[in-house]
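Dear colleague,

Thank you for sharing your sequence with our group. We've completed the structure prediction you requested, and as agreed, I am returning the results in plain text so they can be pasted directly into your records. Please verify that the sequence below matches your submission; if there's any discrepancy, let me know and we will rerun it promptly.
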Amino acid sequence: MVIDLHRRQTLAGLAALAGLGAWAFAPASAFARNNGTMQLAAAWEREGSFHIGLLSTQPGAGQPLQIHASLEVPTRAHGLFVLPDGSVLATARRPGDWLVRWWPGQRTEPQWLWQDGERSFNGHVIASADGARLFTTETDAETGASWVGVRDARTLQKIAEWPTHGIDAHELTWDTRTTNHGAPTLIVANGGVPTAPETGRVKRDLQTMDSSIVRLDGHTGRLLGQWRLQDQRLSLRHLAWAPDDRTLGIALQAEHDHSTAKDAAPVLALFDGTALRVVPTPEHIAQSIHGYGGSVAATPAGWAVSCPRANGIATYTPQGEWRGLVPLPDVCPLAVHGGALWAGGLGASLQNAQAAAPVSHAHGRSLRGVRLDNHWVLAS
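Please find the predicted structure tokens below.
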């Protein structure tokens, strides 16, 4: 079902930008794409203010990670996406009311869009292959049902929306499989955690949780399949494809009532296109993770799930066998560059985090006092 929208977007909430949206950038040389610089689009918090920006470092030991461009945003950001022209998309974490497109290193003013109160953003946005359309996960404020908003990348205005056949939709990603008609397919994780508009992120009626993975036709939004785990209290949230694009990894967050069940919960599930299965974590390790998987990524070495409550990265083989926990204080964002895992922590980040001897990048002066948020993505 596709619903065309002609509702006028409200400008309410623009006052919240007063004093915000300040942006800064380094000289053009900081953005050179051919000097080996590693750049990551990231979100962070510093002393109660929230930002998105570009972080930069040179691969190799002793190279600090620095801020090379930043934009202050009204509230905490969550997912980011870099478009083909280098502009950065970011949206507020759930229940969010803003979406921004920003051109770091350019004098172009950021482009903002505010929700009209009928929908809230769920923290993630991606684009079509040509960058012409955006796809956002959203929640209906009245019914709690989740939707994929289809938006024009130039205006950010919604041109269609598709039901996700669930609640609490979170991350979405493109599937390499196509429909019989050659249309791209979209995978959406329905987190399944019930909330209410009047109480924001407060979880309620967890016994009614209904988390699932759905596959949608990327042209029409038609439902092509839906899969659930046996354990109703495992919320499917963040997504990453294996290097061969044949298996999807899903980071899990446990919502059990009892701490013993939560502490024994897995943090990774794998989806091969037809079946969804959980990947066990050794009991003594699981107890420190407390059932909370943050970001997920995959390299030729295997799967990685950031576990900030355990101050480490849970690592697995490509087949899903346990490898070990890589220590990194307050770790959450993960990205893959050149087949190597980059992980962001508190005070330092790791290059090639799955290796026997990861390379540490201390956070430079511009990043002092910064707490990185859940996600970062390659920007160069």
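Summary note from our side: The first strand starts at residue 23 and ends at 25.

Kind regards,
the structure core
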